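Exercise 7.
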Amino acid sequence: MTVRSLSTAVEARIDRAARRLLDAGHQPHRPVRLFVTEFLVFGAKQAWACAFGALLLGSMAVASVTVPATFRNDVLTVVAVLLQVGMLVFGLETVRELRVVLLFHIVGTAMEVFKTHMGSWSYEPGGLFVIAGVPLFSGFMYGAVGSYMVRVHRLFDLRFDRYPRQRLLAVVAAGVYLNFFGHHFLPDARWFLLALVVLLFARTTMHVRIHRATMRMPVLVAMGLVAVFIWFAENVATWAGAWSYPAQLAAWHPVAPTKIVAWFLLMTISVALVTWLYPAVPSGSARWTADSRRLRGVRAAGAHRLPSSRPPGPRPLAANPQPSATERT
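Solution. The predicted structure, written as tokens, is:
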């Protein structure tokens, strides 16, 4: 099986330049310096993965004070299209990844049309690029989540332990999506679905490769952190007037924290869609080991190697060779 690409061509060049900078002269040995280096690289990669969403959110904030409300929806739609095209043209996303981003866009727009019709939230009226009263830039907000998910998956070379069966995940994700529609007519099943999601991912952990270190994190914690981050972004967007909840029509105030549960459930749909592009690879599989060796042989090319403490000469063969701790992590 062919080892998947760990980055786009542009990101590979950035990665090589960053490694030369971080490894210039010597590899840090002090624990504090190691921690600071890994922490800064983690933050830089997260910011890079959020590029599309951050630019779209910034555009909303700027448009709220520079563009009249009558033209704001169309301006934001044009900006979102240009951002998406730019991501593709400048090599920040691949055509293959764009399929998932567009799928997020379609799934999100369908829900937006229904939810606005039911009065869950509303947009400023007017504009040319509108479908059933919903401006088309709304779908790009879901696309921004998809963009983040596919980019963070390869930037951190994610690997998983005890990942749930894909069919079971698809069934739960479909239930979550249908409940966003059905709870307007039937009893709300979100808490039951939340329990199913927790049970589904209770034992699942992911391995996150940063610079040299690999961190382990429960998937539920990662999903919760992303949900909180989206909730913060939602507060910025509603403050900028991109859309409003019924309680915000008279005056803006922060979005209720209970929305974090909805975003957490949405993460289940997001994970299911992304694993359609990147099937979850177990951390101990042969494919993961091959990816690890490729990472160190290609992306770390030119990095300074530590002198080996083993005396020179041929390495003795073990009777049952096992991968080293470095290869396993």
